[in-house]
C-alpha cells in the first residue's frame, strides 16, 4: 500500500485509550488488528458525540470500503494512545477519514485512512455524501 499523505486539515474529534495487556501481541507491542479496533472505537465515539451510529448516520448505514494503516512507532503496555480524527477527503459517494494516533509523548505511532460509503437503510443503495456530511462537520 502507498504511504498516507500528510493531513493538512483540522481534527474534529479525539479519543484516548490506555493500552491493556490483552491489546498486545506476543512481541509485547500493539498489533495492527488492535489498532484497527481502537480507531473503530474512536470513530464510534465521534458518531455518538453527534447522535449518530454506524447503523444510523443521518438515516444511512455506514460501510467501510477501504482501510490503509501505517505503523510509525511501537505502542507498549500501559501507554496512552490519543486518537485524533479528521475528514481527509469528501467525494460524491465517499468520505475518507484520517486517524493519527499519538502516544503520551505526543509522538505519532500510527496513521490510518478509512474510506466510508453510506447506504440507504431500505434498499441498500449508495447515498450521496450530501446526506451525511453534516454529521462529520457538527461540533
Automatic annotation (TrEMBL):
InterPro entries: HotDog_dom_sf (IPR029069)
Pfam family, one: 4HBT_2
Descriptive protein name: Thioesterase
Organism name: Paraphotobacterium marinum
Amino acid at each position: 500500500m502507498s504511504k498516507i499523505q500528510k493531513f493538512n486539515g483540522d481534527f474534529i474529534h479525539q479519543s484516548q485509550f490506555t493500552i491493556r495487556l490483552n491489546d498486545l501481541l506476543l512481541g509485547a507491542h500493539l498489533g495492527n488488528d488492535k489498532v484497527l479496533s481502537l480507531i473503530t472505537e474512536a470513530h464510534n465515539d465521534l458518531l455518538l458525540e453527534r447522535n449518530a451510529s454506524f447503523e444510523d448516520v443521518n438515516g444511512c448505514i455506514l460501510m467501510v470500503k477501504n482501510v490503509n494503516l501505517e505503523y510509525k512507532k511501537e505502542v507498549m503496555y500501559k501507554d496512552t494512545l490519543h486518537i485524533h480524527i479528521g475528514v481527509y477527503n469528501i467525494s460524491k459517494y465517499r468520505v475518507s477519514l484520517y486517524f493519527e494516533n499519538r502516544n503520551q509523548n505526543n509522538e505519532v505511532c500510527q496513521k490510518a485512512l478509512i474510506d466510508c460509503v453510506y447506504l440507504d437503510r431500505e434498499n441498500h443503495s449508495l447515498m450521496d455524501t450530501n446526506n451525511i456530511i453534516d454529521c462529520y462537520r457538527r461540533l
